Amino acid sequence: MPLTAASEPTVVLLHALSLHATMWQAQERALRAAGHPVIALDQRGFGTAPLGTAPPCLDVVADDVARALDRLGSHRAVLVGSSMGGYAAMAFLRRFPDRVAGLALLSARATADSPGTAAERMRFAELVQDERSRQAVLERATPLLVGATTRQHRPHVLSRVLADARAADPAALAWAQRAIAARTDSTVLLRATRVPAVVIAGAEDELVTAQEAQAVADALPQSTLVTVPGAGHLAPLEAPEAVTGALLDLLGDIAAPRPVRAARRTETGAPSC
């Protein structure tokens, strides 16, 4: 039966760069078993989603998410985004603030990239599309997506992540990196967001620091910071039960909201790129 605007919000799971919707299999299964409506989406160019011809911009991904919700007849969503998926979730929040009932951000910064980081992303986009450099770039960058404990004790997780990275469309990898590099600072946006939220950080994340995760949690007026021991940048794969537990807690908070720490002015939903 299609969901209606009055139904429970749909939990939307947004995957990390080089992966696809199946990274959320454990969480999707558990949340469905708990009675929550859930969709795990392939972002454009990954999994079964076509890349299309739009220029690189996270607002394009946000609009894709809105259309997916519309097809379900669901007006409001609980957005759960890992890394690239977190940046897509923030773009959706900026574009459609009235459609967000809750927010879970994993391994994503509130701030825009520094010029140096943005340049690194643009360089990655160039190299990954070059057959001569692609394999070396992926072999060097992909192990950083998981923590040291995972690399040592859960090599099957790293093997899975490497396989997904090798199988990903190079054009999609480049498009996504350029879109992420072009994103705007979301700190003010998060400060204005008065919905239950959780920030989930891997204690061994080598790409987003503990201080950056804390800054995201501090910006959200109604948030909890959950640090997952023994996990790196991809906690949903490295520590699936811990992430599932944090998401179930968030959904419980949405059913029984906590007081908001502060009220601030909401940003407009105008496109950023």
Automatic annotation (TrEMBL):
The keyword DNA-binding does not apply. Residues 9-240 form the AB hydrolase-1 domain. The lineage of its organism: Bacteria, Bacillati, Actinomycetota, Actinomycetes, Kitasatosporales. The keyword Signal does not apply. Keywords: Hydrolase. It comes from Streptomyces monashensis. This is Alpha/beta hydrolase. InterPro entries: AB_hydrolase_1, AB_hydrolase_fold, AB_hydrolase_sf, Epox_hydrolase-like. GO terms for molecular function: hydrolase activity.
